Amino acid sequence: MIQGTGSNVGKSSLVAGLARAYTRRGLRVLPFKPQNMSNNAAVTVDGGEIGRAQALQAFACRALPETDMNPVLLKPTAETGAQVILQGQIWQQMSARDYQHVKRDLLGPVMESYNRLAAKCDLVLVEGAGAASEVNLRAHDIANMGFARAADLPVILAGDIDRGGVIANLVGTKIVMASDDAAQVSGFIINKMRGDTSLFTAGMETISHHTGWDALGIVPFYPDLRRLPAEDSLTLEAVSHRAGVADIIVLILPHIANFDDLDPLLDEPDLDIRLVRVDKNAPVAPHVPRSRLIILPGSKSVIQDLTILKQAGWDEIIRHHVAAGEHVWGLCGGYQMLGRTISDPEAVESPIAEASGIGLLDVDTVIRREKSLIAVQGDILDGKGRKSGIFEGYEIHCGTTSPTGPHKKLIAAASSASSAQTEDGRVFGTYVHGLFDTHDARKSLLARIGRGATQPDRSVVMNDILNGFADHLEAHLNLDDLLHRAR
C-alpha cells in the first residue's frame, strides 16, 4: 500500500507507474483505493463509477476499470456535503460529520471489494488517501492505516521533497502514529526530487534514524506526469501560449467536475488556452480577453455554479460572445447551463429548486437521483448533420435533458438528449465526456474555430507517459525489493 505524508505527494502516479512496471514484467496487477474524494470520476465496465485516478491505474495495468477498484467514492457538492458512491452506485448524500459516524459500517464492503480483486491477480497496488498522519480521522479509518491493518498490508510511505519539509513530514508522521500503525510501515520513498539525488543522502539517513523505517529510494521529478489526468481541480493552472486573441477560454467553476475532458486540448502545443476561475466575489473585468471559443465544463453542483457564473457577469459575456459570431461549448453540467431552465426538485445537488439557464440551446434539464452511467461511441455531426469525426466516451450525470423545440444533435449513436447544437453549429452542448480524446474528433471540433489538432489519440499519449515513468521507476527504485516486501 502506498500512503503519503499529505495530499498531492504523488501517490496516484506512483501506483500507476509501479502498475505499468510490474505489468510489463508479466504479473497480473490491479489497483485499489478503498476511499477516494474527487469529482473526477470514470464509468466502469460493470456499470458503476470510480475515481478517475483508479481508471488511469487500471489502464496502466492494461485492465478494464471495475467498481471494486474504488469501493467508496466521495463526490463533494455545494451546500449538501458529499454524495457517497458505494461500490459504484449512489448510496447516500451526507455531511462530513455524518460520514464519520457511518464510516465504520463501510469497512465490510471495502474488504469484500479488495478480496475479490486479490483473488484474481498476482499483485494489488493500494493507494491511500490524504495524509497518513491524520490521526484525528484514525477512528474507524478505511482510507489509510485502518485499511492497511485490516488487510495486513505492508505500507510504503511517500514524501514530496518538492514542496519542502519532507524530513519533518516523515519523522512527524512516525511521531503522531500509534505504535501498531507505525509497525505496519515497511519503508519510505522520497518523491519529486529535483537536481542531484546524492545531495539528499544525509536526509535519507536522518529520516531512517528517527523513524526506524527503511529508506527505499529517491524518485526524481518527472515532468510528463502533469499531462496525466488529475483528481484535484487545484492542479488546473492558468495557461497562455501567446499574446493576442485567445483560441479558447475555459471557465473553471467552483464545483468543476470531470475536468480531465480538457487534458487533450491542453496537450495541443499550438492552442492558446486561458483558464479563468469564476468567483462571485471577483466580477469579470470590463475587458475580457477575446477568444474564438468559451468552454463551460462539467459541474457537481450545476445550479450553484450557474448562480455564481451569473453573479460574476459571465452569462452576459457569453451571450455577447455568441452574438459576435464566436463559439460556446458546454460539457455535461455546462451543457445544462446553456439551456433554458434547470430544476432540482429533489434537492439532489442544491437547495435551489429551479434556475433559468443562459438560454442559448432550446433544452430544459431536470436533475434526478437516478444517475446515467454509460459508455458511448459514435460520430460527431456538423451543423448540417454530416458525420465529421469518430469519438469514444462516457456519460455520468444525474440530469435528464429534453428539447423544447426542433434541435440538431451534435453526436450520433447516443441518446437523443445526449447533445444539442444550434443551426450554425457555433453553440453546442453534450453529456459525453472524453469527446476530445480521439484525434479525429478533436480535429473535427477544433476545425470549427479554425484550429488544428496535432496530438494522437489520448490513449497513445497516456501509454507513452506511463511507459516512460515505469522506466524512470525501474532506474531509481529497487522494484525487486518492493515486490519482495509485498505479502
From TrEMBL:
Domain CobQ/CobB/MinD/ParA nucleotide binding: from-to ranges: 1-233
InterPro entries: Class_I_gatase-like (IPR029062), CobQ/CobB/MinD/ParA_Nub-bd_dom (IPR002586), CobQ_GATase1 (IPR033949), CobQ_synth (IPR004459), GATase_3 (IPR011698), P-loop_NTPase (IPR027417)
Keyword terms of this UniProt record: Cobalamin biosynthesis, Glutamine amidotransferase
Family matches, as SUPFAM superfamilies: Class I glutamine amidotransferase-like, P-loop containing nucleoside triphosphate hydrolases
Pathway(s) per entry: Cofactor biosynthesis; adenosylcobalamin biosynthesis
Annotated active site: C332 (nucleophile), H433
Transmembrane segment boundaries: none
Domain of life: Bacteria
Occurrences of domain CobB/CobQ-like glutamine amidotransferase (ranges): 247-440
Family membership: Belongs to the CobB/CobQ family. CobQ subfamily.
HAMAP family linked: CobQ
PANTHER family (alphabetical): COBYRIC ACID SYNTHASE, DETHIOBIOTIN SYNTHETASE
Role, per record: Catalyzes amidations at positions B, D, E, and G on adenosylcobyrinic A,C-diamide. NH(2) groups are provided by glutamine, and one molecule of ATP is hydrogenolyzed for each amidation.
Protein name: Cobyric acid synthase
Native species: Candidatus Kirkpatrickella diaphorinae
Gene expressing this chain: cobQ
